[in-house]
Amino acid sequence: MSIQITPQAEVRELTRLERCAAHSHIRGLGLDDALEPRKGGSQGMVGQPKARRAVGVIYKMIQEGKIGGRAILLAGKPGSGKTAIAMGLAQELGSDTPFTTMSGSEVFSLEMSKTEALTQAFRKSIGIRILEETEVIEGEVVEIQVDTALNKGNMDKTGRLTLCTTEMETVYDLGTKMIDALQKEKVSAGDVITIDKASGKITKLGRSFSRSRDYDAMGGQTRFVQCPEGELQKRKEVVHTVSLHEIDVINSRQQGFLALFTGDTGEIKGEVREQIDLKVAEWREEGRATIVPGVLFIDEVHMLDMECFSFLNRALESDMAPVLVIATNRGISKIRGTDYKSPHGIPLDLLDRLMIVSTEAYKPDEVQSILKVRCEEEDVEMAEDALELLTRIGMETSLRYAIQMVIAASLVAEKRKSAEVEIQDIKRVYTLFVDVKRSTQFLMEYQNEYMYNELGEGEDEEDSSDDEDSNDEKPDEAGNSSDVAMES
Ligand SMILES: Nc1ncnc2c1ncn2[C@@H]1O[C@H](COP(=O)(O)OP(=O)(O)O)[C@@H](O)[C@H]1O
Ligand SMILES: [Mg+2]
């Protein structure tokens, strides 16, 4: 089987708008060259200096391509910036390093098995930089001649293309396809173009300097280039970076019609992956490909079960493993699907391999700075005293609740035609939307009027009821007896 590396169709990527929005103010880790957190917040990052320093070290190691197969656990209370720090790392690494984000609960999908979902996530996080030499024809267009002839009712186009370099000139015969391509690219005499010999793809590099005086009026974006030197035919090195998963998808699509039925990718056959791994190993030996280990970030990792954890254990040992970053807000709690309790809800054998970075609760001035950054991000003007009140609310309820109040308060302010959010707007929103504490209190008072109310039966509830960001912030009285809340 020959392995194909360039996608025929665009590989569709799922972007998670919702989560991006919550962290859209994060533009990096905010570290200086010595990997020290810059004073007073930078790149949207505030406080949490220890964790940022630690992740900075990881960043450096990844960037130098030195590590793979390591795992880092971000542990801390809800809303202490674990996801934010991971997003900062992603931003810092830039688009050249694969960074895959998923939530622990995502593996429980009906379309594929848990291990398949994790395998795909792992392989999305490993980039392969492939060096290819292609033959191109590069020269300045001297003349394009097209003859059309009517042949059995079809328009047949034939033609000749004259290309030159500073040293030589050659005439090429053209078929219909090439003529169409030239016309599509609007190539005319005086353009400097390259034609990929294998694919026939035409790229316009610009207009030749020698023609710059032919026309008086030309678009501002016209780029002038030198007429190429030497031979018309050249070898060029091109570099593609694709993820292992992309290579998997491209090569399994060709394989069978089944891909049509199981959504976009479905499960990818083990044999396909094996062959691809062999091929990649071959390319590496020949010096045609290098591995770019990226990052796989699994948020809310306590949602994984025993099977997934043991898969992670093994996957980390593969020689093409990415760096695994996981995050959890659990203390000592049950490992999903078992009755065993373990720190962070993670089995001890995996914990043993982790470097643990803990995030700390924010101080009032940090909460205030984060809220300020969010106001800027959401284009909200806020009065000084209103911000102070919001900070107090953030300290007493939760940072997330306060962040969510920003946009709501600005809408309330807008309604009374004020350009600035003032205390009264914050107060109004505070009465309109209750936070978890008040809601719980309400539930305690009026429990009998609700369905499924189990308070007082003394049973601790299953983890699976809360998955993501929405209701992490359970106060202790709301049934957290099985999970020891994270402090310190
Ligand atoms: N250090 C920080 N600097 C800037 N924004 C932060 C910081 N920590 C948290 N945030 C913001 O606060 C909100 C909650 O933080 P998040 O990272 O989701 O918490 P966690 O994942 O630990 O539960 C997010 O909108 C996040 O972007
Ligand atoms: Mg989070």
TrEMBL record:
<feature type="region of interest" description="Disordered">
    <location>
        <begin position="453"/>
        <end position="488"/>
    </location>
</feature>
<dbReference type="GO" id="GO:0003678">
    <property type="term" value="F:DNA helicase activity"/>
</dbReference>
<keyword id="KW-0234">DNA repair</keyword>
<dbReference type="Pfam" id="PF17856">
    <property type="entry name" value="TIP49_C"/>
</dbReference>
<keyword id="KW-0227">DNA damage</keyword>
<feature type="compositionally biased region" description="Acidic residues">
    <location>
        <begin position="456"/>
        <end position="471"/>
    </location>
</feature>
<dbReference type="GO" id="GO:0006281">
    <property type="term" value="P:DNA repair"/>
</dbReference>
<comment type="similarity">
    <text>Belongs to the RuvB family.</text>
</comment>
<dbReference type="InterPro" id="IPR041048">
    <property type="entry name" value="RuvB-like_C"/>
</dbReference>
<dbReference type="InterPro" id="IPR027417">
    <property type="entry name" value="P-loop_NTPase"/>
</dbReference>
<dbReference type="Pfam" id="PF06068">
    <property type="entry name" value="TIP49"/>
</dbReference>
<dbReference type="InterPro" id="IPR010339">
    <property type="entry name" value="TIP49_P-loop"/>
</dbReference>
<keyword id="KW-0067">ATP-binding</keyword>
<keyword id="KW-0347">Helicase</keyword>
<dbReference type="InterPro" id="IPR042487">
    <property type="entry name" value="RuvBL1/2_DNA/RNA_bd_dom"/>
</dbReference>
<keyword id="KW-0539">Nucleus</keyword>
<dbReference type="GO" id="GO:0005524">
    <property type="term" value="F:ATP binding"/>
</dbReference>
<keyword id="KW-0804">Transcription</keyword>
<protein>
    <recommendedName>
        <fullName>RuvB-like helicase</fullName>
        <ecNumber>3.6.4.12</ecNumber>
    </recommendedName>
</protein>
<feature type="domain" description="AAA+ ATPase">
    <location>
        <begin position="68"/>
        <end position="361"/>
    </location>
</feature>
<keyword id="KW-0805">Transcription regulation</keyword>
<keyword id="KW-0378">Hydrolase</keyword>
<dbReference type="InterPro" id="IPR027238">
    <property type="entry name" value="RuvB-like"/>
</dbReference>
<feature type="compositionally biased region" description="Polar residues">
    <location>
        <begin position="479"/>
        <end position="488"/>
    </location>
</feature>
<dbReference type="GO" id="GO:0016787">
    <property type="term" value="F:hydrolase activity"/>
</dbReference>
<dbReference type="GO" id="GO:0005634">
    <property type="term" value="C:nucleus"/>
</dbReference>
<keyword id="KW-0547">Nucleotide-binding</keyword>
<dbReference type="InterPro" id="IPR003593">
    <property type="entry name" value="AAA+_ATPase"/>
</dbReference>
